[in-house]
Fold:
Amino acid sequence: MSLFQYPKSKHVRKFGPPTYKHYQTYKRWLQAEFSRVCVYCRQPDSSSPNLNFGVDHYKPKGDSRFGHLLCSYGNLYYCCGSCNSRKNDDWPTDEKAGPYVVNPCDHEMADHLRFNVKSGRIEPRSSNGTHTEKLLQLNDVESIKYRNNTFVIIRALEAEIARLDAELKESENCLSRGIITQAEHDADAISIRADRDAHQCVIFAQNGGLPLALSRKQQNYLAPAKP
Ligand SMILES: [Zn+2]
Structure:
């Protein structure tokens, strides 16, 4: 899945965690469940500190009709602080008519929202998508700027990594032609690889590619695969 792109098929939950008394306990489960990305705006939680990612109650916890779903895993989503507070207690007055904020388990997200990599905007493609985009302000100026800047940073670092790869190759060349010693080449290689790893780490943080190890408990509570 590319950065900020919405999934084309519905998400099937892979965890079936035990029941907890406090819904906040599900945060780590949801982080792994939804690959550490806000389900609504697709921002990775590794892209910036203090984003205040947390647990969203899809059927809002502020609505007394949904009090029984406070700690119901199927009603919980991983989302950034901004989307969480903007979504708030949104729920349609007429459940038949909607509109609904779209979520990745009940909706094929790409049918409702599309990320345009050229403009940095998230484009609605349905009435539910329009409602989601408006309510969560997915195209506020700062969000568009952030998405565009992210691609600038990633492209610059990818170019730098390509340059470092060429530098390493050149060092190997010089070694094979006897222009530099093995010790000189080894020193070059260590420094080049350290720079490369540092750049790659920033790219992963920006694009959400940092690996997330599952705890033993999470592995034990993986939902059985559907036949
Ligand atoms: Zn968000």
Notes: The chain has two domains: 23-139, 144-207.
